[in-house]
């Protein structure tokens, strides 16, 4: 994948990791613009290539009454407005074959959720749009098996593909990151570490997913040290009241400190290489 081919992406010559970050879900226009503006201010200051992330809908929910979105077209138009307002690329996840062409009209990167990455028709539909495809490694899959998911994209005449590790199931209610997977998957495509979802604690009896946001910087630091090309990190100015995944999101007020530390570590890693 050539990072420079992502429309409107900046700072690609900085030798920094790239960042996919934003709220878990698009809850409204004001919140999306507020979060985007803050992140862009930080990433411009630190010269981090940046893609704004926001789910236009949430299909994988624990309970039927969980928040799923504000409406597909409404949320996708907000993603487009973020892109046009701040001149920044955007990424969203898709869940059905019909989502691929629909979302591709509004965003620059299509993300395949971890639970769906083995769904061939979905992966191929994303690849056929010509957009960059971000494949999330299934919580149940080995790093080596992601080679086949990448091949589904490249065999569809799309070389713009990356892989994201979001942890592996450890028992029923916890996730771990096997950092050996980062250099392994880098043989197939650029690798992103999804820091916040790697700290989820799913399958809680309440039906609401838990998390360990206190460990976000620890996992992110380890990802940079082990060679991650990019970092995926969900953030919100009010995680406690976020409509999705609030338990494992980073508070927006802490983002600059965390990214500043990661940039310093990346510089050290670069000097060693």
Which helices and strands occur, and which strands form pairs?
Layout (H helix, E strand, L loop, with lengths): L17 E5 L6 H18 L3 E4 L18 H15 L3 E4 L3 H8 L4 E4 L7 H9 L3 E5 L9 H9 L6 E5 L2 E2 L5 E2 L4 H5 L5 E4 L5 E2 L8 E2 L4 H10 L4 E7 L13 E2 L3 H18 L1
Helix pairs in contact: 1-2, 1-8, 3-4, 4-5, 7-8
Helix content: 25-40%
Can you tell me the CATH topology?
TIM Barrel
Beta-strand share of residues: 15-25%
What does the overall shape look like?
globular
- Report the end-to-end length measured between terminal Cα atoms: 21 Å
The residue ranges in which pLDDT falls below 50 over 5 or more consecutive positions are none
Number of strands: 13
Q: Strands of the largest sheet, in order across it? A: 1-2-3-4-5-6-9-12
**Average residue pLDDT:** 93
Largest sheet: 8 strands, parallel, barrel
CATH superfamily: Aldolase class I
CATH architecture: Alpha-Beta Barrel
Helix and strand succession?
Answer: EHEHEHEHEHEEEHEEEHEEH
Cα Rg: 17 Å
Count the DSSP helices: 8
How many individual domains? 1
* Broad structural category: alpha/beta
Multimer state: single chain
CATH class: Alpha Beta
